[in-house]
Amino acid sequence: MGQTLRAAAAALLAASLVAATALAQKAPEVMVEATRLVETRVGTAPTGAPITSVSLSYGVSYEDLDLASHAGAMELEKRVKNAAGAACKELGHQYPDAAPKEAECTKVAADKALAKVHELEAAAAKKPAK
């Protein structure tokens, strides 16, 4: 029994170390967050229904891109716009009456994420070439 408990503890410790190492080596990514507003009716309050914000985030990896190059920067921007569209489309499926509509949601989500992308591109351009 004691030997089984020690083996289980050792396995748990090993799994924890592997998980910690994986987290420490996380690939660089940009978060794209799509947000929509949903009206939900909770009772019959005279002031109307509360508005709830729902969001969905996607991580967009750029580990394989050279952001100092025009092609790499354009590819990351394309990935971010695609992720924004996918997130807003998914929110539209889950909450069809939510606002704003898909096109506006996509634009807002992409614009927010592209601000971070442009910072990354500027930082990459300032780094000396390898």
Describe the structure.
With 130 residues, this protein is an alpha+beta fold. It has one domain (27-126). The protein has 3 helices and 2 strands; from the N terminus they run αββαα. It has helices at 2-24, 70-94, 102-126, and strands at residues 29-39, 51-61. Strands 1-2 form a two-stranded antiparallel sheet. The model is unreliable at 1-24 and 41-46 (pLDDT under 50).
Labels describing this entry:
130 residues; alpha+beta; two-stranded antiparallel sheet; 17% strand; disordered N terminus
Distance between the termini: 56 Å
Main pleated-sheet profile: 2 strands, antiparallel
Neighbour order of strands in the largest sheet: 1-2
Number of domains: 1
What's the short version?
This protein has 130 residues and is an alpha+beta fold. The chain is built from 3 helices and 2 strands; from the N terminus they run H-E-E-H-H. The protein has a two-stranded antiparallel ribbon.
Chain-wise SSE layout:
Elements: H1 2-24, E1 29-39, E2 51-61, H2 70-94, H3 102-126
Antiparallel strand pairs: 1-2
Helix pairs in contact: 2-3
